[in-house]
Amino acid sequence: xxxxxxxxxxxxxxxxxxxxxFPTIELSDMDKDINRxxxxxxxxxxxxxxxxxxxxxxxxxxxxxxxxxCQPSLETFLQIANNLEVKVQDLIKDKQLS
Length: 98
Prior knowledge:
By secondary structure, the protein is mainly α. Helices cover 55% and strands 0% of the residues.
């Protein structure tokens, strides 16, 4: 039961954070980094290939996420956080700090 409660709590927190970061995305914002996946993978000493295997996606998909070419879904962010043993918030770049 605690796992479900934690999942929904993390999802609510992540959703609030995500919406606050991206209320509207302007074309000038498209070149900015949105996630910190590449940094967190390095901190955890994990590779794109390892994460791809954990998630059942291709390494090129993870590479696109790491370079912010595209972003994973909310559900995938939760899976990534779980696999890397971090909070979802740790995967999102704080707009206030950029």
